[in-house]
Each structure stands twice: as C-alpha cells, then as structure tokens.
Design brief:
The protein is mostly helical. It has a two-stranded antiparallel ribbon with strand order 1-2.
Length: 115
C-alpha cells in the first residue's frame, strides 16, 4: 500500500461478492496532509522559540564573548554530532557527510573562532 493520495484497493473477495468490480477508493491524502502540516507547524514553532531564546541569550551576554563563543561551540558540536550520527546509522552517504564536515569546519567553526 502506498500513502500517496487516493488508493485503489482490489480484492478477489469483493469481486466475488459482487462489489463494483472489486475496487474500493479510499482517501488517505487528508490524513497525510494534516500530519505533514502539524509537523511543519510544530517545527516552525520550535525554530521561532530557539531564535527568541538565542536573542535573549545574546542580549544578556553580548559583552561576554568567551561565554557566547562557548555556547556557539557547544551548538556546533551538537549539530556536527547529529550529522555524524545520521551518517553512522546509514541515513546519508559518505560523500554527503564529507561535504557536511567541510562546510561545518570551514563555515561554522571559522565563525565561532572569529567571534
């Protein structure tokens, strides 16, 4: 069974029972669409909350660059570890992980060290 839009299910039992040629049209699109929308909305709210919390953190510690740098380094470590975990479990290919590491080392770590 597929979760794409309308599904066409055929069974020999329904054909034998005299159903409309044994085909039944079901709608799973609305369930999939609602789940996708709810997940996207929740992730958006988490992103907005994270940006707001980061803004408050910077407002409080903007003159303490060592503390901000430690926080940035911690976030960099968490995101790089998550990407390594995705690669370790086989969700991404090795070349993707190599590109991600180069981008993290060149961009993220460089920005932290220059802050």
């Amino acid at each position: 069974m597929s979760s794409k839009g309308f599904l066409l299910n055929a069974s020999y039992e329904k054909m034998a029972a005299g159903s409309t040629l044994g085909f039944e049209l079901t709608n799973e699109r609305s369930t999939f669409t609602f789940t996708l929308f709810a997940t996207s909305a929740a992730l958006f709210l988490v992103l907005v909350l994270a940006v707001a919390l980061w803004g408050q953190f910077l407002d409080r510690y903007e003159h303490n660059t060592a503390r901000v740098r430690r926080a940035l380094l911690g976030l960099w470590f968490v995101t790089t570890s998550a990407e390594l975990g995705l690669w370790g479990y086989g969700f991404v290919q090795t070349w993707v992980m190599a590109v991600a590491l180069v981008a993290n080392l060149w961009g993220g770590l460089d920005a932290i060290l220059r802050f």
